[in-house]
Please model this.
Amino acid sequence: MKYSKLFGKTVKEVSQEIKLVSHKLLYQAGFIRESVAGRYYFLPLGIKVRDNIVRIVEDEMDKAGGQKMITPVLHPIELWEETNRTNSVGFELMSIEDQRGARFALGGTAEEMMVDLVRKFNVSYKDLPFNIYQFSQKFRDELRARGGLLRVREFLMKDAYSFHATEEDFKDEYQKMWNTYSAIFSRVGLDTVPIESDNGYIGGDYCHEFVVESEVGESRYLMTEDKSYAAHEEVAEFKLEDMNSDEKQLPLEVKDAPRGPTIKDGVKLYDQPAWRQIKTIVYVADEDEKILASLRGDLDINEVKLKHVLKCDQLRPATEEEIKKLGSIVGFVSPLKLKIRKIGDPSLKTVVNFYTGADEHQKDTLNVNYERDFTVDILADIALPPEGCKTKDGKKLIEGRGIEVGNIFQLGTHYSSKMSGAMFTDQDGKEKPFYMGCYGIGVGRTMATVVEVHSDENGIIWPKSITPYQVHLISIKGAEKEADDLYEKLQEAGISVLYDDRDERPGSKFKDADLIGIPLRIVISTRTLEGKNVEWKERNLAESKNVKIDNLVDNIKKFYELS
Amino acid sequence: MKYSKLFGKTVKEVSQEIKLVSHKLLYQAGFIRESVAGRYYFLPLGIKVRDNIVRIVEDEMDKAGGQKMITPVLHPIELWEETNRTNSVGFELMSIEDQRGARFALGGTAEEMMVDLVRKFNVSYKDLPFNIYQFSQKFRDELRARGGLLRVREFLMKDAYSFHATEEDFKDEYQKMWNTYSAIFSRVGLDTVPIESDNGYIGGDYCHEFVVESEVGESRYLMTEDKSYAAHEEVAEFKLEDMNSDEKQLPLEVKDAPRGPTIKDGVKLYDQPAWRQIKTIVYVADEDEKILASLRGDLDINEVKLKHVLKCDQLRPATEEEIKKLGSIVGFVSPLKLKIRKIGDPSLKTVVNFYTGADEHQKDTLNVNYERDFTVDILADIALPPEGCKTKDGKKLIEGRGIEVGNIFQLGTHYSSKMSGAMFTDQDGKEKPFYMGCYGIGVGRTMATVVEVHSDENGIIWPKSITPYQVHLISIKGAEKEADDLYEKLQEAGISVLYDDRDERPGSKFKDADLIGIPLRIVISTRTLEGKNVEWKERNLAESKNVKIDNLVDNIKKFYELS
Model:
């Protein structure tokens, strides 16, 4: 490709509003352009990288036995109603009506579409398992889009769905997809950590995010140094230490407590550590159920865990007014008196003689002990892991931050049991619901993450596997003819070349080459021609060297490991 | 791929409602499945064919200098308003609002999106020309969808847009795309005829449809035997013969006419051929303009041509009531009296002494002559070509019917002049609007057309270039192990294989193979093994032959012209 005719050249100025490195570089180097916030054009350079990623994903999915196919973008809304996801999805679903009055969801994920397709066939256990996947445009009606490709409103996603006769068979597939994902990300130049995470709007019992460590990521997780345990902060489990098990239980006592409503206010008044208190929050779940959640005062409630325990879709803290109506008061709510459903964290069992509010303004109850003085309806882990916490077997947990580039989900019969007829005929002649899993990769986000990881102050440094072109050829004044010839020669040898044939200053051409980030830059000038050389410069090395023109093709093939 | 594990196997029964051959076969053989009317899943076999077509289109577009990219699916509606296409598009545009209140069109075609993108750059004449294209999902809110992939509500389209500094440069590109399209369709196994056609909702001055002759096509066209002239019936030009130029003009005469309102009624009353009459129809254009269209009585009005002449978006015949209000009456309207804008067809000049209505019930005017007795505001071709008509230079025109698989459009400055800032800086430093063209191919429709053309009573016969697999391997009981080995061996040689490894009757496997339509079927059985052979059967030949297993790979490579 001659750069003079390439559509989408480099841009000098960048708006101050562009913050993320990947956004800035992909924009400036001519890979992407915004249409409106969260919706991007992929320019000719950008689509080449995206296609390369797609090819790698496709190759690894096929190797793992995946079968590519595609669903329509518009999903009949009735299917989403069948699984009740029109109410519960975590992203706003976009929907549209056609002129005949049929309503459709714009594809967000495609579980319903795939199950609906599969149930149109008479599937026997002999046909199982299969894993069908697609690359298709997905839509999320996000209120806020981040700059660039990291969080968008429309994007290409590889989404795969596997169908099994048994859980055991599914587990093999889950492991296979785990390995496939590691292989895919490694091929595109990313180190990923699979972390346990929340299944959100997808459903099912467990899932893993594939995360690339990055300061700009939105996923916060905890991990042991040896990476044997890694989990999203929303689901991470940690060890609860007994705080004062040698203390004796003292009798209950209610007394005046001239303090403010916070845990800190209590610490100040009693001059005791935060763990001495019970933290209690009243929530309103789904339609209107009031529930009470309690845990040790030094810990924070993890609303994701709490929602799972409650099996609810919506959750919000109660208002002052609502708490008053229940017969308590903000800052002095206790798990002792209120007659609503109570959820307690196991940390309530790690302290002897808690103090807590007495459900009256500025009155506290002292020496409160779990089981002796109160119990809860459900005792379950609802805590966010605190700083410095350890795994259940005592290993140190380090906090990490990263970008989620893919995820794999166990679905079990979550969809197949809700959608009628989503059954196969088993060996015994009986109809059974499919056991399922699903597996997603955001292609654009993967591309942006590569740039976050592989770039320097001058621009992008593409991994060889996904570079838009293999060679960035630059001609310097006086060597135009030789550059033209070399351009032809390299292409004839099957090497893809971006050829900067413009009549521009060398400095400006070099700058553009660094910005665009092709791994190998070849410069040809009257000076290099004197020694029948070209200048060979690898994007990730500071030094350049001379290479004989006659050996160039071989060297490039070696560099790219082409046969 | 082992057929036992393929998702989307053949189907025995077909609904009576499935009429089109391509619909029936693609459904039955497991290439596509309907989601809801007009929206299709492409199953694993189907996506392979579609991908093969995509690859061929991409290859030829790239060879012609096209640059692939992609736009978002959701187009800001403001762009379509800028060109006034929210009102004038020929298909119903689907639109959707996001939760922040922004409205978007679901991409139908992408002229506005591409122009909007290009105007974000500072384009100089040096950057021109370029041709940018994409493969993306398109939406049409059709009231009626046909069965299968021929007319759908959602489909993958290759749409290309070229930007030029001058009309001359565009003309070169138009010819290049013409050749590219011929090459693409020829490679996928289709003979196309480029026919002049109406530009419909796209705009511009001229365009060509690439049509594959077929009884089930929706395009009707006229063509000379040597194909030197071919045009859609909506735009076809034809020779007007003088009917009675030797007659003398007689004086005007109004007389009672006890006849009905049709041309036939006139023929009956006067016992004269239809061409003796003037056919006049009152239309209502756009908001509320009444116009009068007249032509020779043996011809019919071509509303597409008429809309172009009027440069209007909407056109409908006036009601009885509206005609009365104007001071005339249905069946007796003439171009002589009414004081509204008049459009006349040149056929009005081919008859001496017409008769026509006298704008009163059962009164006619005789001996009406164009120019002597009336003229029109616009004299322009507004006639449908009649049966047996000839080209302007006297060649016979044959009527044809076919499927439109692609089209190429001159756009000129139709979009760039309407969208502000759609300019480039020319050599003289002045800003000028882009001169444009656009070029579309429906990928799914192309696939269905191939099936319409390449199939027999037993199933599909895929052209080698787009077959989902190169070999359909069938094992017969007793030769399973050898078949497994051969499957591995062929794949290692880089040959793609669909391997029917099921424990089924040979007859049923052969039937499925014929239905699926892979060009080459290889059968291995204990009988063929006796001579160290396999059975080689080409899908389009009746006879099979034996081929030595040892020579099989070479033979297959020769068959597919693989190196």
Remarks:
- Residues 469-559 of chain B form a domain with the Rossmann fold fold (CATH 3.40.50.800).
- The mean pLDDT of chain B is 94.
- The longest helix of chain B spans residues 167-187.
- DSSP finds 14 helices and 33 strands in chain B.
